[in-house]
Amino acid sequence: MTPKSRNLMAVLVLCGGAFAALPALAQEPDAAIDVNGDGFYSFPEMLAVYADMTEEGFRTIDANGDGLIDMEEFAAATEAGLLTPPEG
Ligand SMILES: [Ca+2]
Ligand SMILES: [Ca+2]
């Protein structure tokens, strides 16, 4: 196996892992973001994935103002182009 094809294998393995981590349903929280598993994305959780997230941006996404982003708010923000899904 050449070094080049080994790199390709590594890329394929990484991509496979990313696909396996994708939630089966859009309503399922992404475990890569929801690290404490409460089903909501807090500001620190979002910041870990979206490094350019600001508190103002977070409040814009947090439509009901409870300080957490639920899957509906996340989907709405993604559809509105405020967020790029992490897998993209
Ligand atoms: Ca959480
Ligand atoms: Ca909310």
Helix content: 40-55%
* Name of the CATH first level of the domain at 25-83: Mainly Alpha
How many β-strand runs? 0
**Helix/sheet category:** mainly alpha
CATH topology of the domain at 25-83: the name is Recoverin, domain 1
Termini separation? 30 Å
CATH architecture of the domain at 25-83: Orthogonal Bundle
Bound molecules: calcium ion
Average of the residue pLDDT scores: 83
Task: List the defining traits of the structure above.
4 helices, single chain, Recoverin, domain 1, 0% strand, mainly alpha, binds calcium ion, 48% helix, 88 residues
Structure commentary:
This protein is mainly alpha-helical and 88 residues long. It has a domain of 59 residues: EF-hand (Recoverin, domain 1). Helices cover 48% and strands 0% of the residues. It has four helices and no strands. The longest helix has 19 residues. It is elongated, with a radius of gyration of 16 Å. The two termini are 30 Å apart. One calcium ion binds next to loops.
